[in-house]
Amino acid sequence: MSMHHLNFRSVYMDWISDGHYENPVFVTLATNCENSNVEWSSQYEKQKYFQNKINSWDAAMCRHFIGKHYTDFPSKRQSGIMWTEHASTNIHYHGHVDIRSWSIKDYTAVSDTKWRNLVPSGTVDIQPVTDPKRLIGYMMKKQNEWSLKNNFDQMIFLPHPNKSRNFRLS
Fold this sequence. Notes:
By secondary structure, this protein is an alpha+beta fold. Helices cover 40% and strands 18% of the residues. It has 5 helices and 5 strands; from the N terminus they run αβαββαβααβ. A 5-stranded antiparallel β-sheet has the order 4-1-3-2-5, with helices on both faces. The longest helix is centred in the N-terminal third of the chain and has 24 residues, at 43-66.
């Protein structure tokens, strides 16, 4: 394991350990598209297509729980990081997401509906986070030094910085 990989993992663990997540869940959004008839000109094109679907899912979730003016309420939005996995075959995403005050039962039901509206072959799995360190290890298992230095596009931030007028790094 590279120093970059260990440093990123360590920084992320410190960040979540400092209480930045109120109500964390582990989210898996699968596309189940390995047998689809879609021809991708590149893996990059496929990845960008599904990253746009993730951003649309995020917006749909926030609209459902907060309302159509969800961008005016950044503290009520879900937030977290989604990691791309198996981009060349059955592309899917694992995420560590803070669902704020939303109930996990409602979040699970709404997630499934919203994701299937965007990706009809898709499936959703939501689990409470019981061991953040183990979760981070699982989410980052496919990330290596090269991917962390040259492929930060495998990470999707919720809310997406370009999709929220009130997004601030702090």
